[in-house]
Amino acid sequence: MKKKIEVTKPFLPPLEEFLPYLERIWESRVLTNAGPLHQEFESRLAEYLGVEHISVFSNGTLALITAIKALGLSGEVITTPYSFVATTHALVWNGLTPVFADVDKKTCNLDPDKIEKAITCKTSAILPVHCYGVPCDIDSIQRIAEDYRLKVIYDAAHAFGVKVNQRSILSAGNYSVLSFHATKVFNTFEGGAIVSASKESKQRIDRLKNFGFIDEVTVLDVGINGKMNELQAAMGLLQLSYFDSVMERREKIYKRYVNAFSLMREVDFVVVDDHISWNYAYFPIFVGGEGPALRDAIYALLKNEGINARRYFFPVIHRLDAYKGKEFAPMALSNAERLGDQVICLPIYDGLGEEDQDHIISIVRNFFLEKNGDGEICCSR
Ligand SMILES: Cc1ncc(COP(=O)(O)O)c(C=O)c1O
Question: Please, what are the domains in the chain?
Fold first, then answer.
């Protein structure tokens, strides 16, 4: 039987290091509701990420829904169609109309010019995604937000630990939302967090994630249950001490892929500038030209060899059944559609062996060696 290789494998600390946390939880019988581990995790996390105000959540989707709710938005919100579907769902769950703008084909992130063109008198906010952990053009987005008096919420689900010029990107906008889902570079099984721009904003988020309570008998807001439990917080505390070393090992894997593919004109990939400390969250490659046929052939070949690469993000959100045919896209979204047709995320995780990685590389390389008998196929994103 062929060995299975998934696109990612969650990092877990040694089990024996988790047991003392379990003992603490069993002893205290505090399982949730901002318990001691939750408190400790929030303050250590803020310090680690270099941000001032953070609130941890049971998952990233509830965190997104809560951040949007906290801003009291109305009408339209400009967002990207090239993301995981939770980004758009969170808007619709708040009764807002998502308006898709196209992305930049090199960064895969919202193109500021396209954001500006999508603004109408109904626009209240922008919801960009730091796709694959690659930072958005934060300065241009901030300028647009100020010019048009719009709020900004960053979906930073992929961007744990990412910095630009040594500064966390999570402080940008009104709120940034993280996911600690098992598939993410930093996991608490399920989990998430909101980074707030001020103490008052954090207080509002903390209230909203706990049904709107401010004391035993006062409910000030229509809140929700977004609380992180003590088991998740314990996992988060442990993960923090391993994150730097996990990053080092992911970087090595990333560099081996880059070495292998940089001489192949048929394969394009994301390159980040030197002033960015990236987290190597994904290794997306872009292959083929028009339509998904060539990409799907490589995807099928990998699958046949037991390698579960993933097509993040295909189909693009406006083409999913839930959104198809609705008037959410005033402009062409051709870059997002093309990226969606060309992308394959190759496996990258702590523990991916060199032999397995070489096998993945050789499948992609051999595919093109054989194909190029019919003429060279360049990828033009
Ligand atoms: C871009 C993006 N936004 C939001 C989410 C939702 O996060 P969660 O799975 O923690 O609810 C995810 C991932 O799952 C994501 O990739």
Answer: 15-238 (3.40.640.10), 243-374 (3.90.1150.10)
